[in-house]
Design a protein that fits this description.
512 residues, mainly alpha, Rossmann fold, Glutamyl-tRNA Synthetase, domain 3, Arc Repressor Mutant, subunit A, 3 domains, two-stranded parallel sheet, 22 helices, elongated, binds glutamic acid
């Protein structure tokens, strides 16, 4: 087998959707599995849709996921440039060869003329009017005009484009590694535009020329490109590049959580979860999106989750590190049907990764990614905090949402229990118990022993003091082991909190 060279070819038209990240992942896995090259190519020939910052966003997202291109803008490589806008002359040259061989032609029609042609076809009962073999001979192009007219228009027309000449009566077979043979009839295909009036190539032309020149072995991309594949095969034929034509693999769609329709960029806001890898600041709030990263996902978990959106290893194993994915991943195990986006599953993966990570790793991650919260916190404190919380969170952001009280004053107390259970007697016990606890070495085990001793001596139950200690120091009944929490918070904080809690609890009951 010749060298595996695969490319991820996003258009910088906005932030990279999570579906794009999955395409990048599958492409990356194939590259690594076969010791090939993972190429990043920026397809920026559509000037109207170019969005500043999108290329940087794509690169940062790939880096966050650990998928570093072997070749690409800023990554080097012998097949550059890797930005299509920097390859204009190449496309012009190749488009001309198609004109010379009669596989393509110039067209000069204005938008209005094309519109009239479409309306006429509709009136004749054609539901899908096209610029194709049946209509081209009534249009303004180098097939219908004289040589002189053509050379005149080439100098003066603002509408000059190049179209592929698709002849009717043939069948085009696209051999897809996931879908098998997909057949198209050429009379159903239009004469695709190859070069636009602004001098830029269309996606179709640029994509084929680049895949050829960059010696791409496999084209791995979303299902939405399958209909274009027929034109792509025609283009390979037109250039006489059929022998080295890459293999195609069109990936299944990613569906909305209810399975009804394609997951869209707006679904994130609608369902309250991220559909982008990282935060994106758009020009206005509707165009700004939260990312998996900022939502609290680990990149390793994100990748594991994405790998399963359309693929499975055929056994029960779900947790796959990147090396295991590289080993197990296979294009032939990709499913044909759409994959439902299940955010709960994503959270489950994340939870598994957090539980598996060691405390040092988690503390470092928190410090690095949430410096505004954890930047000034002692590492040993953060590591212990990580160990207490890691079994109780799904996302990195949950560490703070659920355990903020380790770092800030309590915002809210679970008052229901206080209202129903707090009384003078219990207030008395807590007041007497606190100095005993504080006089211990304040190791979790010691605090526990002191508490047990007090309970025994006073012939009361755990329920007479434990809930109030817990709510007093954290505001909530949920949370890690009480004694571990107290040990980590330290004497000073615990003393202050419990003193304040007694006053607060008394007030709550007095207001009843
Ligand atoms: N530029 C196309 C996109 O944005 C690439 C499709 C392909 O991989 O051929 O998805």
């Amino acid at each position: 087998m010749s060298k595996v060279r695969v490319r991820f070819a996003p258009s910088p038209t906005g932030p990279l959707h999570i579906g794009g990240v999955r395409t990048a992942l599958y492409t990356y896995l194939i590259a690594k599995k076969y010791h090939g090259d993972f190429i990043l190519r920026i397809e920026d020939t559509d000037l109207n849709r170019f969005v500043p910052g999108a290329e940087e966003y794509i690169i940062k997202s790939l880096e966050w996921c650990g998928m570093i291109p072997d070749e690409g803008p800023g990554f080097g490589g012998a097949f550059g440039p890797y930005r299509q806008s920097e390859r204009k002359e190449i496309y012009e040259k190749y488009a001309k060869t198609l004109i010379e061989s009669g596989k393509a032609y110039y067209a000069f029609d204005s938008i209005e003329e094309i519109e009239t042609m479409r309306e006429n076809q509709i009136q004749e009962g054609n539901k899908a009017p096209k610029y194709d073999y049946s209509s081209r001979m009534s249009m303004k192009n180098s097939l219908t005009l004289t040589e002189n007219e053509v050379s005149d228009l080439l100098k003066n027309s603002e509408n000059t484009i190049i179209r592929l000449k698709v002849n009717p009566g043939n069948e085009i077979v696209v051999n897809d590694l996931i879908r098998g043979e997909v057949t198209f009839k050429t009379e159903e295909l239009d004469d695709k535009v190859l070069m636009k009036a602004d001098g830029m190539p269309t996606y179709h032309l640029a994509n084929i020329i680049d895949d050829h020149l960059m010696e791409v072995s496999h084209v791995i991309r979303g299902e939405e490109w399958l209909p274009s594949a027929a034109h792509h095969v025609l283009l390979y034929k037109a250039f006489n590049w059929e022998e080295t034509m890459p293999a195609f693999a069109h990936l299944p769609l990613i569906l909305k959580p209810d399975g009804k329709g394609k997951l869209s960029k707006r679904d994130g806001a609608k369902f309250g979860f991220p559909v982008f890898p990282m935060n994106w600041e758009g020009e206005n709030p509707e165009d700004s999106f939260i990312g998996f990263k900022e939502f609290g996902f680990d990149p390793k978990a994100t990748i594991n989750f994405l790998a399963f959106l359309g693929w499975n290893p055929g056994n029960e194993q779900e947790l796959f590190g990147i090396e295991e994915l590289i080993e197990s991943f296979n294009l032939s195990q990709i499913v044909k049907s759409g994959a439902r986006f299940d955010i709960d599953k994503a959270k489950w993966f994340n939870q598994q990764y957090i539980i598996k990570s060691d405390d040092v790793e988690i503390a470092a991650y928190l410090k690095l990614n949430y410096p505004e919260i954890y930047g000034g916190i002692q590492t040993s404190f953060l590591e212990k905090f990580a160990s207490l919380m890691k079994e109780r969170v799904e996302l990195y952001t949950d560490f703070f949402t659920s355990g903020y009280y380790f770092f800030e004053d309590i915002k809210e107390f679970e008052e229901k229990i206080i209202r129903s259970k707090w009384n003078e007697n219990r207030a008395g016990h807590l007041t007497k118990l606190i100095p005993n606890l504080l006089n211990s070495s304040f190791q979790p085990g010691e605090i526990k022993l002191e508490l047990e001793k007090y309970i025994k001596e006073n012939e009361i139950g755990f329920g007479d003091v434990m809930p109030f200690l817990r709510i007093g120091i954290s505001g909530t009944m949920k949370g890690p082991d009480l004694f571990e929490m107290m040990g980590l918070m330290g004497k000073e904080m615990v003393e202050k909190r419990l003193d304040e809690a007694i006053i607060h609890f008394n007030n709550v009951v007095a207001d009843k």
